[in-house]
Structure formats: structure tokens, C-alpha cells
Amino acid sequence: MHDTIEIAVLIGSLRADSFSGRLAKALGERAPEHVSMRDVPIGDLPLYNQDKDGEQAPSAYAPFRDAIGSADGVLFVTPEYNRSTPGCLKNAIDVASRPYGKGVIIGKPAAILSHSPGPLGGFGANHAIRQSLVFLNSPILQQPEAYIGNVANAFDNDGSLIDEGLGTLLTTFTRAFADLIARSRLELD
Question: Which of 5, 22, 38 is nearest to 175 (CA)?
């Protein structure tokens, strides 16, 4: 019997019917029974400004930080914008990593699934996020890598996943991330 694993999901697209949201839903549907995934909204987070943190922090920071802090791991599901991370997602990482040295994301296991409508699968966004997470000392899922190219072809008009190969990858990815979190727990005990 596994202890429940709570994963906070940060979706890098703010569109209502985004491919990121569809992929996050498909991941949740394929997660092992002992894994709970919950979306943590980032669209209403004010831009991070150290001058307005601490006692003067925007009210949206506290519930966001609490959600990240209480999770066992953080999953990033993101498109690529201009060969990098969408600004809203980078801002969320900044908010979760502050105040300096006390951020709730520091050392937290993480996994990244990136995508694009073209063949590169969001490689630039994936590695831009990795760069931040390495600095934050987060154990990052290495394998399987998840760069989803031609993402528009993976779903039907209703938003259901129709690409069986991708479904298999998502199942493997989710299980591997749960295993990384479990190993990280053991190292902390």
C-alpha cells in the first residue's frame, strides 16, 4: 500500500481550452491510484516584486505558496513561447521560490512536460524550466523525457486524447514521477 502522493500541477498556458490543460487532464486520468493531482492556478498571480513581498505581499501569493508547499511534488505542463517559458509560468516559479532561501519550491521534486504544435515539442521551454529548478535544488524527473510535438494531432475535437502512443508515455511519465517523489521521501526520512 502506497501513501498518497499529492502533486501540484502548474499549467503554463492561460487559455481556457489549452493543450496544456488537456495534457494535464490526460496525465491525471493515467496517474496511479495513490497519486492525486490538483491544478494550482497561476493566472492571477501579480508579477513578483521583492519590494512588495513579506508583510506587503499580494493576497494571491499566500494560497499559491501554501498549495505548492503542501504538495509532495510539482508538475509543470507547458507550451513553448518564443523558445522559452511562458511569462506566467516563470513568474509562478519566482513567487514559489521567494523569499530568498525560504521558498516553498526549494528542493521539491519536479517533472516537466512541454509541448508545441511543431515537431520540437517545447524543448526550449522544458530546459528553461529545468535551469530554474536546478538552481532551486529540485530533484527533476530525467526519464522519460516528455517533449510532445505536433500536440494538436493528439486530441479529438472534444479534447479527448486519441494518440495511444502518447497515452502510454503519459502513463509511464506519471508513474516515474510518483517513484521519484517516493524515493525523495525515503531520502528525507
Answer: 5
At residue 87's C-alpha, the angle toward residues 6 and 135, to 5°, is 60
Q: Is the peptide bond before 99 cis (omega within 30 degrees of 0)?
A: yes
pLDDT in tens, 11-28: 999 999 999 999 999 999
What's the DSSP call for residue 52?
G
To the nearest 10 degrees (0 to 180), the angle between helices 87-96 and 61-70 is 80
pLDDT at 1 (0 to 100): 45
pTM: 0.95
**Cα–Cα dist 133/160, whole Å:** 31
- What is 5-188's CATH number, 3.60.90.10, 2.60.40.3500, 3.40.50.360, 1.20.210.10? 3.40.50.360
**What residue spans define the domains of the chain?**
5-188
CB of 22 within 8 A of CB of 54? no
How many other C-beta atoms can be found within 10 angstroms of the C-beta atom of residue 65? Answer: 20
The residues that bridge with 177 in the sheet, in sequence order, are none
